[in-house]
Amino acid sequence: MSFNPFKERGIAADKQLRNWQELNVKPYDKNEVHPYTKARIILMNGVEVEGAIFSHQFARNCNAPELKKQLALTRRVEQQQQKTINWLSPGDESPLETTIGYEQVAVDLTAFLAANVPDQYVKQVFDFGLLEDFDHLYRYANLLEMTQGVKAEKLVGKLTEITPGRPTVKEHRHPFDDVRKPMNRMAADPLTKLYTLTLLAGEQQTMNFYMNIGNTLQDQVGRGLYQEIAMIEEQHVTQYESLLDPQTPWIENA
Description:
The protein has a domain at 94-253: Up-down Bundle (Ferritin). The mean pLDDT is 96. Helix 2 (35-60) runs antiparallel to helix 3 (65-86), helix 2 (35-60) packs across helix 4 and helix 5 runs antiparallel to helix 8 (220-241). The chain contains 9 helices and no strands. The protein is globular and about 55 Å long. The chain has helices spanning 20-23, 35-60, 65-86, 95-116, 120-148, 152-155, 190-213, 220-241, 250-253. It is an all-alpha fold. The longest helix is centred in the middle third of the chain and has 29 residues, at 120-148.
């Protein structure tokens, strides 16, 4: 099944704006929500954040006033979509419980994309990161049980295996070693591009999340764990973004 953006008109951007009541949605019940509902919320939040931040960077490198206006309008809508999606997460869910959801996304999304991406080199890069995502989920699961007495298997609904991966101590690499070979935008399958952008958005959001909540933990063990894994997420973002063709125009990436 193909997708033609010129035939799928969608809803005009200026018709997508929401009022405050529509934005301030009711959060899910953390004790009742399906694990994959949480996973989809986390991933789509990352996609919307990437869309908004990319649009800002695009605007700063654009000298076409009319295009800047369209970027501003689209970005306003994307920011509202991000707020709507992210506000589905409840306030009584601890940062560590949310973290388990982030790592479930990392494991299951990366595994699916690695199994289906057309490009074999990109698949190898995805598989490489997947081994480290397993490690992160395993270590956070141990921290959750140690500090809150909660089994992570309950949070992931036993849908994702919690098992040791590549040990974190072996994940720290020289920055040069995280830079991969870029794809050729003219030759790459559209799915390869979309899968890479999707995984990049998810990993970038995970990196941002750990950067901002890692210092909210009170015990030094937990703070140290978030700090270490946050640095690995930096490596993952570097790895996946380096797969993109640097010759791709801004408007094409948008």
